[in-house]
Amino acid sequence: MTSVLRVKNLSFPWQTQDPFLFCVFHKDDYPEGNEDMTPKASLAGRNLGNDFGNPSGWSMYHGKSVPGFPAHPHRGFETVTAVQKGIIDHSDSLGAAGRFGNGDVQWMTAGKGVQHSEMFPMLNQDKENHTDFFQIWLNLPAKNKFVEPHFSMLWNKSIPVVIEGAASVRLIAGEYKGEQAPPPAPNSWAADKANNVQIWTINIDANGSFTIPAVDGTVNRSLYFFEGDEINIEGKKYGINKALELDGSQSTLIENGSKSGRFLMLQGKPIGEPVAQYGPFVMNSQQEIMAAMDDYRKTEFGGWPWDTIDHVHPREKGKFALYPDGKLETP
Question: Which segments constitute the Pirin C-terminal domain (predicted)?
Fold first, then answer.
């Protein structure tokens, strides 16, 4: 028997399995920045406000001066934003804010509704501003669709890394070899250990190997191979930019090729409920989607307390998290 159930080519966004909704991987080689944290490069010819596709190695996305995603609403799910390189400025409709990156993770529960912006300020004026991060959308069960919005920072130093031979495993969620990831958001599907939610980034040295262990219970497990050259699993070779759906009841030995490899693993017990999605809203029925749109038109999920929809924090500001209750946290 093989542990590889299905293989798909990676697209944008990456396809995921229940309880996840999708994953986007952003890798942008941004240039040096100006004093106002905009790119020190011409923006001529870009479709500003909807600039995707990495022309010249980077995108503005929905940003028109600073790259990123200006204020937009969410309801009914969570975002897990794991930054390997670069800096993200967060601002939201609850008055909360943060600056994080270079190994940090932000876990945000949209719940009953929140607006937030995610901007990528060009802080470096004397060198390039490279970014490399995932944003993973994790669904909420029906009973938690209307919980209060929440966000927390998992600072880099709090995230355990397990070294095993030629591999290193970084635990954003879940546990491995006795190491436990920081607690997820309190109303998350991942908060119940019985749901066996694991979010790992895995690096394997050239010609090294790593075994993903089998687990008890029913889970959906996906392995994303996005950097390297090729891997061998059970005698079959796979190139990069592949999503492999794995049988979690079996262990999977990954034998890496001649280049160091990078992987993301997403695993969890499926929620098993209907999914209705319209853009930034994820509910269980079309009626609930219509209600979400109506609520947003009426309330704007609390409004927008910042001067601009693409708010960035002062250049001199270091990493921080400001919570809705006024609590200020730094790494």
Answer: 200-302
Q: What does the pLDDT look like over 46-94, one tens digit per residue? A: 999 999 999 899 999 999 999 999 999 999 999 999 999 999 999 999 9
Both tokens of 118, joined, read 């995610």
| Distance from C-alpha of 197 to C-alpha of 128, rounded to nearest angstrom | 35
Q: Which candidate, 75, 73, 47, 74, places its Cα nearest to that of 62?
A: 47
Cβ proximity of 270 and 197 under 8 Å: no
List the CATH code of the domain at 1-9+159-273: 2.60.120.10
- What is the location of CATH 2.60.120.10 in the chain? 1-9+159-273, 20-33+61-158+282-306
Beta bridge partners of 87: 101
Secondary structure (DSSP) of 179-245: EEPPP--TTSGGGSGGG--EEEEEEE-TT-EEEEPP-SS--EEEEEEEESSEEEETTEEEESSEEEE
